[in-house]
Amino acid sequence: MNTHPYARAYMAGVALPTMVLLLVLAVFILLRLILRIPAPIERIIVFPMAVVPNVFGLWNMLYVKLRGSRQISIGGFGALLPFVLAPLGGFVACSLGFLSATSSGLEYFNAFRVNYGLLAAGFCVVIVVYYLGWKYLVNFFNGVVGIA
Predict the structure, then answer these.
(1) Order of strands, sheet of 99-101, starting from the edge strand that comes earlier in the sequence
(2) pLDDT tens per residue across all 148 residues of the chain
(3) Of the four listed, 57, 68, 91, 125, which is most buried by Cβ atoms within 10 Å?
(4) Strand partners for 105
(5) If we measure between CA atoms, which residue out of 9, 107, 15, 91 comes closest to residue 52?
């Protein structure tokens, strides 16, 4: 079954973040509408819901394209994705005024502050999560669609 491997790779890549973002949306609805937390999260949740699944699909297509010429593990390749998404998300958030850099850290909506040390530790955790997600889940979805 070699027909349309890139379309199948895109679909396999989109599956994981789509499922995770449904959980994120459920938590958002719980926090915002039921617990009445006043943070304007809806302005920042649009970027991940619109961009991240598409980037996962495109990243998986790139993995399928490159694996024929290079030996790279799917987990390692997936762990590189936060290095693309974080600057892209930061640029969009800064451009729209949601995020500003201060001397002590990043400030969201002029209300929530994260120091750079915590941000670096969180980024390391994200890399590990992406590695494991790509190694086990995206690789599983690639097998389901027949491109593993």
Answers:
(1) 99-101, 105-108, 112-115
(2) 568 999 999 999 999 999 988 888 888 888 888 888 776 666 667 777 888 899 999 999 999 999 878 888 999 999 999 999 999 888 888 888 888 888 888 887 777 788 999 999 999 999 999 999 999 999 999 999 988 7
(3) 57
(4) 115
(5) 15
CA distance 139 to 148: 7
Alpha-helical regions (H) of 30-115? 42-67, 74-79, 82-95
Q: CA-based angle 71:126:8, to the nearest 5?
A: 50
Token pair in block for residue 113: 């502050």
- Choose among 132, 6, 19: nearest CA to 58: 6
What is the C-alpha separation between 14 and 92, in angstroms, rounded?
A: 21
d(CA 144, CA 148): 8
- The answer for residues whose C-beta is within 8 angstroms of residue 16's C-beta and 6 or more apart is 56, 133, 137, 138, 141
CA atoms within 13 A on the CB side of 3: 1
Contact criterion met (CB below 8 Å) for 82 and 126: yes
